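Practice problem 4.
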């Protein structure tokens, strides 16, 4: 199919070029004949008639072009191929300067140059810049199939990190079509938005400016609850600590938090709810020792520490929910460690305009791809997390 379109575009381009050459040759012959007639020894009246007839023919042709431009409806303001050819023929025949095309025909000079450029540049007619190739469509389905909880915006952000420009609406249209050939069964991905009634978050201006901390419970072996500590950096949304606890008491929480502080450095503020462990003396002593200022969310209000709650939801629904069975404490520790790597290094974040948390934390933000980036790079690195059947994508040069 693409071969036939290439032959058709080449044929049209050759016809247009031949017509322009014929018009140019005709114009030169006409000018030479008029010059010869003017040099002959005839009455000035006859000479004037010859020149006036030629001028009348030129003006008639120009008026017909202007009439077509005026009668064209606003909904279809583009010139047809025949009208473009007529304008180009008129320009070449009567040797009209290109700087005066706006005065003669009411079209911009940039439009004229674009027409001439399309005649010489065959790549524009063969592969349009807004054409989504079958290879990219298959790649979109590959990402959506390996990350079933992702919506169209996060999928588009993942492609942008790989230097491929695809809008979110195009991703949606691709996923609504049948799966491309040579692939698994189609998988409908829907984007579900969860609205959290939360107060505006405390602004964070740099890494380790504001952290938030919270705990949650995960069922081990489907029966025994295990507490998990989650600590988030608000500026970069980086998970600085996600670890199972031997117990919900303050000693285990303080020990895990101190390890995170030793690795990443202490924050200036830390936000928590008003649970007993976070308002106790032991936790307060830890904050004083590291010169951390405590901030508290509303009592019993869902969304008071919305950033941490959202990451906990991601941990449960996008990660642990894909594990068939959590086989004890050590298995949960391994899953949490892999989640921290996947979340910080591989997963595009919505609030970071599609970047990953490590990109913001280490000030290594990727550049946005141009609108002409419609090919899949050859240096894409894939990492499969087998326990959750999730695949991460990134460029090797940016790893």
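Answer key:
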């Amino acid at each position: 199919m693409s071969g036939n379109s290439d032959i058709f575009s080449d044929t049209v381009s050759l016809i247009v070029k031949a017509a322009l050459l014929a018009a140019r040759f005709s114009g030169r012959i006409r000018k030479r004949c008029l010059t010869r007639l003017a040099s002959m020894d005839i009455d000035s009246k006859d000479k004037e008639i010859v020149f006036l007839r030629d001028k009348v023919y030129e003006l008639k042709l120009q008026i017909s072009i202007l009439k077509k431009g005026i009668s064209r409806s606003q909904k279809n303001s583009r010139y047809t191929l025949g009208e473009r050819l007529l304008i180009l023929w008129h320009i070449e025949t009567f040797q009209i300067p290109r700087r005066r095309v706006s005065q003669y025909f009411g079209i911009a000079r940039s439009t004229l140059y674009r027409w001439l450029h399309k005649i010489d540049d065959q790549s524009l007619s063969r592969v349009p810049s807004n054409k989504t190739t079958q290879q990219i469509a298959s790649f979109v389905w590959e990402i959506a199939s390996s990350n079933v909880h992702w919506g169209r915006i996060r999928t588009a952000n993942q492609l942008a990190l790989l230097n491929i420009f695809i809008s979110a609406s195009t991703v949606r249209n691709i996923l609504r079509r049948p799966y491309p050939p040579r692939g698994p069964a189609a998988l409908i991905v829907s984007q579900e938005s969860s609205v959290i009634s939360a107060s505006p978050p405390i602004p964070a201006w740099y890494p380790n400016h504001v952290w938030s901390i919270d705990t949650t419970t995960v069922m081990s072996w489907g029966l025994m609850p295990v507490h998990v500590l989650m600590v988030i950096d608000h500026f970069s949304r980086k998970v600085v600590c996600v670890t199972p606890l031997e117990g919900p008491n303050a000693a285990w929480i303080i020990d895990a938090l101190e390890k995170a502080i030793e690795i990443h450095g202490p924050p200036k503020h830390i936000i928590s709810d008003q649970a007993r462990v976070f308002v106790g003396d032991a936790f307060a002593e830890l904050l004083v020792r590291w010169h951390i200022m405590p901030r508290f969310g509303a009592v019993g209000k869902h969304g008071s520490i919305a950033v941490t709650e959202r990451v906990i939801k991601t941990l449960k629904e996008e990660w642990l929910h894909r594990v068939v069975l959590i086989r004890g404490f050590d298995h949960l520790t391994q899953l949490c460690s892999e989640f921290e790597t996947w979340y910080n290094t591989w997963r595009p974040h919505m609030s970071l305009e599609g970047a990953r948390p490590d990109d913001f934390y280490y000030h290594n933000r990727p550049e946005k791809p141009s609108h002409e980036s419609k090919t899949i790079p050859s240096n894409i690195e894939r990492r499969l997390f087998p326990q959750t059947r999730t695949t991460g994508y990134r460029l090797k040069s940016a790893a």
